[in-house]
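Internal tracking record. Fields below are filled automatically when a chain is submitted to the structure queue. Please do not edit lines marked as system-generated. If the sequence contains nonstandard residues, flag them in the REMARKS field before resubmitting.
Queue: standard
Priority: normal
Entity type: single polypeptide chain
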Amino acid sequence: MVKPTVERAPKFEISEVDLSTVGKYLNEYGATDDKGRYLHWNQLKWRVPQAEAKDIWAAIKFKRTMQIKYVHLLDDKEKCFSYATPHSMEAKLHQIIKVAGGSVGAIAGNVASDSIQRKYLVSSLIMEEAITSAQLEGASTTREVAKKMLEEEREPVDEDERMIINNFLLLKNAEKVSKEPLSIDLILDFHRIATNKTTENNVVPGEFREDNDIFVEDDRGEIAHKPPCYKEIPERLQRLCDFANEEHSGIDGGEFIPPVIKAIILHFMLGYEHPFRDGNGRTARALFYWFMLKNEYDLFKYVSISKLLKDDPKGYGLSYLYTEKDQNDLTYFIDFQLDIILAAFDELQNYLKVKTDEFYQVVEILDNSQFNNLLNFVQKDIVKKGTKDPGRLFSVKETANSYAIAENTARTYLNKLVSLKLLLQTKDGRTTLYFAPSDLKSRLKANHV
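SYSTEM-GENERATED OUTPUT FOLLOWS
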């Protein structure tokens, strides 16, 4: 990912503050601006009088220092990373915890009213995240083709499709091992799955880079980030594992770090360490999901952050650089990610509304037909897809994968639709395929009671 150009913020040391110069700005400026934004020097310097900019910046940094919390993670110069929690960020965090602490049913309404519907919803949304995460890394396959490939378990035809399948398996694995402690072996497993059978940047799946020729350029072609030396990777990642596994619940007077913030820090640090030749972003996002599920924020099974990161690659890149170019202040990255998560919740609600509306358009037709009481959710949803896409092919394997049911069950459901003349049947070699007739909607209306 090419990152935007960012000027390094003026260095701030509280011991060097001249209150006789900076003091007059302390009442006027806080850690955030009047809109709650945690501005970097690059964003602030043109919003204030140029002659006073550095003194105003010193006043803002003074206020931020009063809120700063250090984490036991170091950059390549052995300087600590830290973050603040200004009021605006606390409000976002509260909203995320309030929503994520609930069930998907609270958001989904009637669309996830039984276990099969919920399984279908989870599978569908994991596919969405797998596809957009790959597209964020440069994959060019269309969503429709990619989703059908995942549903049918078709072999990928190129590296872009391979990346999508790998991402899907990666997210499923992150959920599977969510109760395990973080270890270097687990990070290597995540990476191995993410990059299996890919060749970009001469990546070796499940192995650390063995040189220092990896760097990230800015939009002027200059080095924006050069990760720590490859020889330090095992030691540095062990520190990251220790941080992930350390108790930060605040119980008995210990340090408290909200799980959402801790997950975001893990995401940032894997990107900062850049331990692999390729696949760092995908591994970092899997680490984020792993930690959220580990802490029983199950709603994150349904949330796609990659779609929104893909829509704002500049903001994503800046949030990394602002942290690095302002004394390791993680607040910029955390605040950006909190906005992404909140937007992802909105996207989820919109997605569920669209799916619900689509489903009930068919249900409305079915309610007035003789088929109403003969079909279950899966069969009604297949009919919905068929009315939307006449001629669409369905297979037993695709149906079983889409709805997380056994293949025999899927075959029974499809054959029932054939017997009711709502699907037609054909053969492709030894494989039985089912397809939606072009007049499916008319067949439904013709059977009104």
